[in-house]
Amino acid sequence: ILNVEQSPQSLHVQEGDSTNFTCSFPSSNFYALHWYRWETAKSPEALFVMTLNGDEKKKGRISATLNTKEGYSYLYIKGSQPEDSATYLCAFSNTGNQFYFGTGTSLTVIP
Amino acid sequence: EAGVTQSPTHLIKTRGQQATLRCSPISGHTSVYWYQQALGLGLQFLLWYDEGEERNRGNFPPRFSGRQFPNYSSELNVNALELEDSALYLCASSLGGSNQPQHFGDGTRLSIL
Question: Residue A52 to residues A111, B31, B41: CA-CA distances in angstroms?
């Protein structure tokens, strides 16, 4: 069983603040790294899938980077809004086609 | 476009019974994934089906099984239910391949009494 670790576990920020979270995963047998947003009472929503070392993806105010050699990914949110409040999950898939989810970072944006 | 649909929404069973959970993927998606989220834990990978075949399974006992039908819908079967099987079971679909984003259903809440 592989460990995918996310930090921090929870975060409270003021509206307008920028923030970032970390996802750490095993650097061996890497295939893809996924980010999902999971709002309360909804199902997880795909944000990004990254496969190459150095990948950077952006979707509006949210962006992500990937370092497969050292085994981490960062998710950035610029100018946080209350609607960004959610749990952000990362998932690592390896060349053995196994998926491992982190336990998530819970973000609360205070108006 | 219809999203991933799961049924039933809630399911209540007793220990030793069998449960069947169903999932219909987004049209055009060939891969279906099953996950378990037990209370206080993260999403645990259960099973992956693609093109009708089981591609991989997570670290779960054999009493967790499933299948994928020719129309790509899927069912998850859990035999000899135990109290610790109480969890939210999420299904996701994708175009295939673990480098494709997954689209999740709303889940089935399974409660074992």
Answer: 36, 22, 29
